[in-house]
């Protein structure tokens, strides 16, 4: 399988209750500074093959490998939303920083091999002994080796759901509640061995990627009561071994809105359309027009600081008058019922007593404004002789 199958998609379909129709891919218009040319290789020892490189979102698939492997050759990782980013390994203190990813035994097949005494001739075996050894058979890397993007493995799963307690299997990207912007390309990646036939135990050969609208009521946000009115995009049947698919977001999919919530799902070929449920293992995210620039009032900023967003503040605003009216009614009935038990005579007398207090300077009072001030020596009670005796 060549990675030319990662071509971008352009048309959008409404497939609510009808059979899903394959979306025909369009050629990638992205170019590189170096012209990509087909190259020739020999596969499976004797089979000649012409390989044509393909560029998607700036990532070159099926490029001709270097004659000598370079451990410092750049490779491509994926951001949380599935957008690609180039990683450049570095050699520091004799160790490689950001090396190419290793996949352990995730893409190998475990097998038990049995050896008899005649085959091994081990000095510590009896002639009737049998030795069993677990071996791992590597996958066919004829085509997966041409993929420069990191592959999805269970160790790269994330937690999703309102409580972050549900595994994202089989997805590694995109992460839940991330945003896809119109005009950009994102990669959906999944663990290929997740899709096994329950009867044969073999990994499913073909899969399809679906994008579906998710309808949520305001009162149901954050819960699992969701309805899927339509699957608006379906890919062609893909080779499951690739484990990823590039999608360019079409503005027509928003249907005139700035933002739509969607679910990304992968359908294996062993599950019929009528039995496939996109929400069973799907990932919820947002599809948006682009960066939105707007000015917020002081009230809106205060609501954001309080953690109130979207339409939640409407419910808060509506609840405030109701609470005030209810409180006033309760106070009225309380005062009316307890009126005969109230006695404010002590309070009244205390208030009247306060009226006789003299506040402020005496000289500023109207009654004493014309009074002339005298020195202490001029007062009638002053006696100069008696004062000297003391």
TrEMBL record:
Q: Where is the signal peptide?
A: 1-18
Enumerate the Gene Ontology biological process terms.
protein maturation; protein targeting
Q: Per the record, GO CC terms? A: Golgi apparatus
User: Is Zinc one of the keywords UniProt gives this record?
Assistant: no
Is Cell inner membrane included in the keywords of this UniProt record?
Answer: no
Residue ranges for the region (Disordered) are 72-103
Which superkingdom? Eukaryota
A Pfam family of this chain: Psg1
Task: State which residue ranges cross the membrane.
Answer: 313-335
Keyword annotations for this protein? Membrane, Signal, Transmembrane, Transmembrane helix
Question: Under what name is this protein listed?
Answer: Uncharacterized protein
Name the gene that codes for it: KAFR0C04050
């Amino acid at each position: 399988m060549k990675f030319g199958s990662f071509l971008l998609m352009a048309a959008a379909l409404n497939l609510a209750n009808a059979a899903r129709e394959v979306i025909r891919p369009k050629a990638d218009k992205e170019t590189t500074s170096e012209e990509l040319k087909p190259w020739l290789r020999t596969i499976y020892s004797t089979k000649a093959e012409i390989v044509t490189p393909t560029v998607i979102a700036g990532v070159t698939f099926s490029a001709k490998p270097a004659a000598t492997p370079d451990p410092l050759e750049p490779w491509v990782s994926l951001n949380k939303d599935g957008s690609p980013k180039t990683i450049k390994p570095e050699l520091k203190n004799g160790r490689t920083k950001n090396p190419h990813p290793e996949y352990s035994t995730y893409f190998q097949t475990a097998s038990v091999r049995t050896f008899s005494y005649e085959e091994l001739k081990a000095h510590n075996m009896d002639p009737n002994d049998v030795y069993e050894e677990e071996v791992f058979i590597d996958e066919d890397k004829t085509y997966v080796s041409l993929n420069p993007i990191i592959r999805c493995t269970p160790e790269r799963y994330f937690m999703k759901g309102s409580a972050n307690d549900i595994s994202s299997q089989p997805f590694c990207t995109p992460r839940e509640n991330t945003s896809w912007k119109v005009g950009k390309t994102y990669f959906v990646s999944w663990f290929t061995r997740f899709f096994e036939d329950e009867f044969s135990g073999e990994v499913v050969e073909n899969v399809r990627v679906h994008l579906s609208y998710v309808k949520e009521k305001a009162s149901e946000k954050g819960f699992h009561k969701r309805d899927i009115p339509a699957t608006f995009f379906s890919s062609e049947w893909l080779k499951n071994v690739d484990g990823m698919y590039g999608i360019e977001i079409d503005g027509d999919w928003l249907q005139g809105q700035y933002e739509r919530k969607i679910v990304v799902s992968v359908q294996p070929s062993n599950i019929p359309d009528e039995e496939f449920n996109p929400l069973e293992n799907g990932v919820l995210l947002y599809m948006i027009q682009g960066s939105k620039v707007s000015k917020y009032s002081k009230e809106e900023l205060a609501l954001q600081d309080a953690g109130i967003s979207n339409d939640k503040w409407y419910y808060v605003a509506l609840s405030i008058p109701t609470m005030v009216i209810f409180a006033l009614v309760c106070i009225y009935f309380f005062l009316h019922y307890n009126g005969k038990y109230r006695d404010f005579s002590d309070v009244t007398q205390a208030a009247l007593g306060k009226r006789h207090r003299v506040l402020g300077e005496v000289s500023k009072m109207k009654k004493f404004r014309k009074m002339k001030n005298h020195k202490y020596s001029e007062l009638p009670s002053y006696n100069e002789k008696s004062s000297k005796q003391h």
